[in-house]
Amino acid sequence: MQKWFVNLTKSDHKKIKMVLRSKKVSMEVKKRAQILLDLDETGGGVPMTVNAVAIKRGVSENTVVNTRKKFAEQGIETALFRKKRESPPVSPKVTGEVEAHIIACACSAAPEGFTRWSVQMIADKIVLNGVVESISNETVRLVLKKQNLSLT
Fold first, then answer.
1. Which of 11, 54, 79, 97 is most buried, taking the most CB atoms under 10 A from its CB?
2. pLDDT level of residue 130 (50, 70, 90 thresholds)
3. Final residue belonging to a domain, choices 54, 80, 106
4. Within a domain: 34
5. Residue 35's closest CA among 45, 25, 50, 21?
6. End residue of a domain, out of 49, 80, 111
């Protein structure tokens, strides 16, 4: 027994046709659009089965079922396009404030007994000052490289 039905309106058909003609849309989105057309029940004919659509479009049956479910529950936009991420998966450790501390440390006079700062010494100093909990010397190197600063 099927729970979700695909009944495309004329405006849905227009959107799908535009998506299929577009060169800026990924193949993944185009496949979902084709799946919706194959499952459409408003055309008068009998819609294809999930298995037949999966074979025809070269996707898994789960993809067909999930596309149909998203269309039935949330509409065509959700069925075709992925949701944009609101924030990155891990917030960056180096913010503008941390960069400023790294640059200030690199531009300051070297510690007593040294002629210049090393990348590891800057990383240790930033952690000791409590700017960040931990930072690698590679991250410090990348910040300095980004600012075209050299420790020589």
1. 79
2. very high
3. 80
4. yes
5. 50
6. 80
Extract the tokens encoding 25: 């849309």
Q: Of 66, 86, 88, 52, which Cα lies nearest the Cα of 6?
A: 66
Distance (Å) of CA 52 to CA 19, 49, 68: 22, 5, 14
Contact 79, 71 (CB under 8 A): yes
User: Which tokens hold the place of 59?
Assistant: 């996707």
Would you give the DSSP letter of residue 131?
Answer: S
The pair of three-digit structure tokens given for residue 102, joined into one six-digit string: 């790294």
Phi/psi at 146 (5° precision) = -60, -35
Task: Name the token pair of 56.
Answer: 């025809």
pLDDT tens column, 23-65: 999 999 999 999 998 888 876 667 788 899 999 999 999 999 9
The reply to whether 65 and 110 lie within a common domain is no
pLDDT tens digits along 70-87: 988 988 888 899 888 888
Q: Tell me, yes or no, whether 54 and 102 share the same domain.
A: no
Pair (101, 57) in one structural domain: no
Whether residues 65 and 103 share a domain: the answer is no
Domain membership of residue 110 as a residue range: 96-146
- pLDDT for the residue 64: 92
